[in-house]
Amino acid sequence: MKSLKTLIRLHKNEVDEKRRHLTQLREHDDQLTLRRQQFEAQVEMERQLSGTSVDMAVAFANFLPQIKLQRNALEQARQQLLIAIHRAEEDLAQAFQELKRFELAEEERIRKEKAELARKEAMMLDEIAAQRHLRQQEEGGTGEE
């Protein structure tokens, strides 16, 4: 059954594609985490600068609503990304299970083929042995008469 090998190859490609997609999502999550850390470092620097003068304190106070919006946007993006990662992990697990199912079916088919071949070889060897035995009996039987 060549079709099982084709299906296995197709599912391996699908699993590889889903792995690549999951890796990309995780890399995007790492980048988003880095952006969040950089943003927080920038906010902290601005906060420290706001203590140096009244003008800086006023500017920082005006900047606070933007900080909250930016934090919320980053958090929402992260939550959506975590949902996408979770879905991608589930898709990968399902694709891997399908691949394993086909691989096990192929292994079972090969095992049955080998068992059938061994059975046919045993029958052929039994037939050869039976014919040899008959010939030996005929040769031995004709020599006695």
What's the layout of helices and strands?
Layout: H1 2-50, H2 54-144
Membrane topology: Peripheral membrane protein
Organism: Nitrospirillum amazonense
Protein name: Flagellar FliJ protein
The biggest sheet, with number of strands, parallel, antiparallel or mixed sense and barrel status, is: none
Shape: rod-shaped
Q: Kindly state the percentage of residues in helix.
A: over 70%
Terminal CA distance reads 56 Å
In total, how many beta strands?
Answer: 0
Mean pLDDT: 91
Low-confidence segments: none
Short description:
By secondary structure, the protein is mainly α. Helices cover 97% and strands 0% of the residues.
Spell out the key features of this protein:
0% strand; coiled coil; 145 residues
Question: How would you characterize the overall build of this protein?
Answer:
- With 145 residues, this protein is mostly helical.
- The protein has one domain.
- The chain has helices at residues 2-50, 54-144.
- Helix 1 (2-50) runs antiparallel to helix 2 (54-144).
- The longest helix is centred in the last third of the chain and has 91 residues, at 54-144.
- It is rod-shaped and about 125 Å long.
- The two termini are 56 Å apart.
- The mean pLDDT is 91.
